[in-house]
Amino acid sequence: MKLGVLDMTVNRGGLPDVTLAAHQASEMGAASFWVPNFFGLDALTTLTVVGQQVPAIALGTAVVPIFGRHPRVLAQQARTVQTAIGHRLQLGVGLSHRPLVQDVLQPWPASPVAYLDQYLSQLSEMCRMTDIPSDATSTTIRIVTERPVPVLCAALGPKTLEIAGRHADGVVLWTVGPNTVAQLTVPTLQKSASAAGRATPSRTVLGVPIVVTDDEAAARDRIARQFGTFEAMPSYRAALERENVASIADIALVGNAKQVEAGMERFRTSGVTELLANDLASTPQEREVTRSFLAQWIVDNP
Questions:
Q1: pLDDT tens-digit series, residues 73-126
Q2: Element (H or E) spanning 3, and its range?
């Protein structure tokens, strides 16, 4: 299992903040640096800027909502970014959530799962092709790079996991616990890919809040308050219920170094191939201890 970083400063800061966070992740030895796409900075544009200033580390979106973006337009943008940053992009996409889409980007479809199936099929093909056939004419659109863009799908439930198994290069998850990964995520991907005649998607990427601290109760309470609104979303609520926990704080890796390391090992054995640390330390001292722990974990787990 590799260790990456999931950074949230894209939602509340500017490009210098995100670039600094990427530099810190790279210096720590992290395998990758990921940003979400909410209502702050655009994730793909941000990673283009970051990629010009931070070499080597892989860069990913977790995730870009598919609504409001034609699959061809998103593929064109992703492949342009891929060229600009030296072929380091990992494109995570997903349905998002009805309250964030309805009347903001476009009407919520009658069957969001069917919409995702069609969209991901087209997007994944376009991100792998050298030429994209034009629907309107007999001409073709020349892709700017022959290197494909890996496409990962935010798939929390059985139906979206089946779609990811048919079309994507992997999944990018959040609020999913190790029991769910082992019992639902990995088996469903394997079964769906096999039925479609594909190799099993090789990547199971999962973001999780991490805090190394002596005050576990305070940290978990802070995480519960910070992500309380997310827990009301049906897909997140279902993910928590499958794991038989009440809150995102119950999935978070919080406690002393030994406790956090044990939690990371549970994710490793469940089938997670890349764990994304979402550092939610609240004080400079707590943040330094957490980052030192993560850096040492990387050294000890090459």
A1: 999 999 999 999 999 999 999 986 556 656 555 566 678 899 999 999 999 999
A2: strand 2-6
One-letter-per-residue 3-state SS of 253-268: EEECHHHHHHHHHHHH
What is the total count of domains within the chain? 1
Cβ neighbors of 79 (< 8 A, separation 6 or more) are: 127, 143, 144, 145, 149
DSSP assignment of 36-98, as one string? --SSSS-HHHHHHHHHHHS-SSEEEES-EE-TTS-HHHHHHHHHHHHHHTTS-EEEEEE---H
Q: Which residue has the tokens 């019992």?
A: 183
Q: What's the CATH number where 91 sits?
A: 3.20.20.30
> Average per-residue pLDDT in the chain?
90
Query: Could you give the C-alpha distances from 118 to 112, 163, 164, 299, in angstroms and in order?
Result: 10, 9, 11, 42
113-121, long-range: CB within 8 Å, 24+ apart, which pairs?
113/159, 113/160, 113/163, 115/66, 116/66, 116/153, 116/160, 116/163, 117/163, 117/166, 117/167, 119/66, 119/71, 120/66, 120/93, 120/151, 120/153, 120/163, 120/164, 120/167, 120/168, 121/166, 121/167
Pairing status of strand 151-153 against strand 170-174: parallel
pTM exceeds cut of 0.85: yes
Angle at CA of residue 208, ends 58 and 244, nearest 5°:
145
Domain membership of residue 262 as a residue range: 2-300
2-6 and 32-35 beta bridge pairing = parallel
Q: How does strand 274-279 pair with strand 89-94? A: unpaired
pLDDT tens per residue across span 254-301: 999 999 999 999 999 999 999 999 999 999 999 999 999 999 999 999
